[in-house]
Specification:
Radius of gyration: 40 Å
Number of strands: 12
Structural class: alpha+beta
Number of helices: 19
Helix content: 40-55%
Mean pLDDT: 86
Largest sheet: 8 strands, antiparallel
Strand content: 5-15%
Shape: elongated
Length: 576
């Protein structure tokens, strides 16, 4: 078995040599001293091997810890923490090379003596300016020790920065003068990725001995930290690659969402606003210490899962015909057929006028008195007025501003049943399909069109199921497709009810409805007053369409007002 490069057989052989050497002095006056010396040598060897075993074990544990960390901020902090532990350094700084390779940006800054921890998970932002890698003349900046390391990849070990030559240490000197600190020994190493590109620089300051005195970083320590730097660079690269994949995923998702919103001028920005409201509610749930949701806490993975679902909740609309999604009037298809109705009523008006003219000519030819002519004019004027009244009534029914009662539907059918003649053929004033659309009681969609619209939820689920989401994001399709489900089971696509609906889908349902009610950029309707939107949410709670507890949280905590102040028009805050 190997013990840090020294085999057990090698140790036994060494002990035999020592024992043999001691035996030769047996009986001599110095035997006791030689025996003691041999024992000390054996103990020193054992201690050295044990120390190196501990070091190897420590490096292994550090490597495992670094490779298992997926949060970049925490990983960067761990790199400095562990390097300082191994070297007993009082302070440490980690720089990251910017994407353009033009400067070193401060990432982590620590100093135990000055009680400073900045960057990473500390919550303290580093405000120091980055270190330029190139001067204004575009020549390499090798005067700064960290930039020199980043440019050359060399390891720099300095016993005392006040006595070192070749680098500009004005910064440390100014810091020392202002704080009373004493910068002395310094170790600077480059972090290289698998392609040998330098991605960062680790700078350690003031190695300490057992008594707390500042000493130079030993060559052995340099090799150890070099090994750590290599592991750290690999771990950093892995995390950056994972983050890059996440960023790519979100970019693709946001592009798809933008494309869906861009399909319709009536829903532009809807998806992004639903994401905003959804995450506002989820974050508030996480912050609660009492009440129904006190025991509910979304993990980071669950929050990401919900956010992705919110971004993708309308992805199925990409397959829905635009004229159905955008149907703002009842007669609209790929164009608004009200223009055809207008033309038809104008034709009927001309037919009536022609009849009036023909009857007037006949009366004049027969020598009718003026009273007969007046009667003809009055009668046809009444017919034309009735025609225009009917025309305006049909136009009013085309716009979904008023609920279509039985009386209103009966009047539409009565108007439609009237006929006119053209080119020897008889036609109804309105076609069967026009009557069907004009008699839609609420909104603009027929039953078949509504089913087409509602199919987007099922299509969303089907599309997202095809994506290879990792296990931690496996429920994205379920949440995304569930935002139109209702507590009473009357929703779609699956008619889920009650406890069958996960909390995440309930949150998205409230977000989706509130955004749709309060949207200020719908060209087919005036922006709804905030107070009216709250009333409608109340009705939906009463009908068991949405979760009352989520709505109560959204309203009572003031989240709805925070959103309204950021997104709504000032006129929507005023009472009717």
């Amino acid at each position: 078995m190997s013990r840090n490069g020294v085999t057990d057989s090698g140790v036994r052989k060494f002990k035999k040599i020592i024992a043999a050497a001691c035996s030769r002095f047996q009986g001599a006056e110095c035997y006791a001293e030689v025996l003691q010396l041999c024992r000390e040598m054996e103990d020193a060897l054992e201690n050295d091997i044990e120390s190196k075993d501990d070091l190897v074990e420590g490096l292994t544990e550090i490597g495992l810890a670094l490779s298992g960390e997926t949060r970049l901020e925490r990983l960067l902090e761990m790199i400095v923490d562990e390097a300082r532990v191994l070297t007993r350094a009082d302070a440490g700084t980690l720089y990251i090379v910017d994407p353009e390779g033009r400067k070193l940006e401060f990432s982590i800054l620590q100093n135990d003596t000055m009680d400073v921890r900045m960057g990473g998970t500390s919550g303290n932002e580093i405000t120091l300016p980055p270190v330029p890698l190139y001067n204004s003349s575009n020549t390499p900046n090798k005067s700064n020790v960290s930039s020199y390391c980043a440019l050359t990849g060399e390891t720099i070990n300095i016993a005392d920065v006040y006595e070192a030559e070749g680098f500009d240490f004005t910064g440390p000197r100014k810091y020392d003068a202002a704080t009373g600190y004493r910068s002395k020994s310094m170790l600077v190493l480059a972090l290289k990725n698998h392609e040998q590109d330098i991605i960062g620089v680790l700078q350690l300051l003031n190695a300490l001995d057992d008594e707390g005195e500042i000493i130079e970083f030993s060559p052995d320590v340099v090799n150890i930290v070099g090994s750590l730097a290599s592991q750290a660079a690999i771990a950093m690269t892995n995390v950056q690659l994972i983050q890059g994949l996440k960023d790519l995923l979100y970019s693709v998702i946001q592009s798809i969402a933008a494309a869906i919103d861009a399909k319709s001028p009536y829903t532009n920005g809807h998806i992004e606003r639903v994401v905003t409201i959804t995450m506002m509610i989820a974050d508030k749930v996480n912050s609660l210490q009492d009440g129904k949701y006190a025991e509910v806490h979304f993990t980071e993975d669950e929050l990401e899962e919900l956010k992705l679902a919110a971004w993708m909740h309308d992805v199925g609309k990409i397959s829905i015909p635009e004229h159905v999604v955008d149907k703002s009037t009842k007669l609209e298809t790929i164009f608004d057929r009200v223009a055809m109705v207008d033309a038809r009523f104008r034709l009927i008006a001309e037919i009536i006028k022609n009849k009036q003219l023909q009857e007037t000519i006949a009366a004049l030819s027969g020598g009718s008195d003026p009273s007969k002519l007046a009667e003809i004019e009055t009668r046809y004027a009444a017919d034309l007025k009735q025609l225009e009244d009917d025309h305006q009534y049909i136009l009013s029914c085309n716009v979904p501003n008023e609920f279509m009662s039985d009386d209103r539907i009966a009047k539409v059918k009565d108007i439609a049943s009237r006929t006119y003649e053209s080119n020897g053929e008889t036609f109804n004033w309105l076609t069967e399909d026009e009557v069907k659309n004009l008699c839609i009681r609420k909104g603009t969609l027929t039953d078949s069109e509504r089913k087409v619209i509602e199919s987007h939820a099922a299509i969303t689920h089907e599309m997202l199921l095809r994506l290879p989401f990792p296990k931690r994001l496996a429920r994205v399709p379920e949440y995304a497709a569930g935002h139109h489900e209702k507590l009473d089971g009357s929703g779609y696509p699956n008619g889920l009810k009650g406890d069958e609906l996960p909390l995440q889908a309930r949150i998205m349902a409230v977000a989706d409805i509130f955004e749709a009610l309060t949207a200020k950029d719908r060209p087919y309707k005036k922006p709804m007053k905030l107070s009216q939107a709250i009333k409608i949410l109340g009705f939906m709670i009463k009908d068991r369409h949405i979760d009352g507890d989520i709505c109560k949280l959204f309203i009572d905590t003031g989240l709805y007002m925070d959103y309204a102040k950021a997104e709504l028009d000032p006129s929507q805050f005023e009472d009717e």
